[in-house]
Design brief:
The structure is a single chain. This protein has two domains: about 40 residues; about 150 residues, Glucose Permease (Domain IIA). It contains three helices and 16 strands. The longest helix is centred in the first third of the chain and has 17 residues. It is elongated, with a radius of gyration of 19 Å.
């Protein structure tokens, strides 16, 4: 038996790009063509560079997802900036383990579900746009909180948080949906972070400064004997 599986069907292109990037890519390509036809070489070059950067930013590589009961995969590509136990936050009642992943503009920005289960609530809040690596960004910035219940009854929450540059949070799942670990569920356009709130007693598998990839890197493990 394989130790990995596909949460989403593999793409049929050599360079998969998230659908959200198509309008930006089309605009950049159209502007480049117009500038080239008008003979404006400098602007045409700038348009081409913009098209290449947008294509890079909205890349959406296929990922194989690790098997393992209770395994929590990273919902985002980036760097771990916080691994801390907290209590009675806006996103989790009681004690929990909070892990934060910071995404720079150079990371893949497609987000993936950290654990299989049922979506029991989605709570969007408008807010400010502090730099996403600051602690106050978790509650003060625009964010979208997704609450999930596993088949064993454990609850967790993962929160898409806008940053200094990000101005658009995309989420394609809804309350009541059954989701798979590693499944694509949205993205944050142009940078930010994702916080994950896990049941107290979850075994963390990452530390501050670690680099992780959405769907493939393990953040932690919910122990089978963990109390509800």
């Amino acid at each position: 038996m394989s130790n990995f599986f596909w949460a989403d069907a593999p793409s049929h292109t050599a360079y998969p790009v998230a659908r959200a990037g198509f309008p930006f890519m089309f605009t950049a390509a159209f502007a480049t063509a117009v500038f080239a036809l008008l003979g404006w070489a400098s602007l045409a070059l700038l348009g081409l560079l913009s098209f290449l950067f947008i294509s890079f930013f909205f890349r959406d590589p296929d990922r194989v997802i690790p098997f393992g009961e209770g395994c929590i995969v990273s919902p985002a590509d980036g760097r771990i900036i916080s691994v801390v136990e907290t209590e009675n936050s806006e996103f989790y009642e009681g004690k929990c383990l909070k892990i934060s992943v910071f995404m720079s503009i150079f990371n893949v920005h497609v987000n993936r579900v950290p654990h299989e289960g049922r979506i029991i609530k989605i709570d969007y809040h408008p807010g400010k746009f502090f730099s996403a690596n600051l602690d106050k960004a978790s509650e003060n910035n625009e964010h979208n909180a997704i609450f999930l219940e596993t088949k064993k009854g454990h609850r967790l929450c993962f929160v898409q948080i806008a940053g200094l540059i990000a101005r658009r949070i995309l989420c394609h799942i809804q309350k009541g949906d059954m989701v798979q670990r590693g499944q694509r569920f949205g993205m944050i356009c142009f940078g930010s972070r994702v916080d994950v709130y896990l049941p107290y007693g979850t075994n963390p598998l990452v530390g501050i400064g670690d680099r992780v990839k959405a769907g493939t890197s393990l953040l932690g493990e919910i122990k089978s004997d963990l109390e509800l």
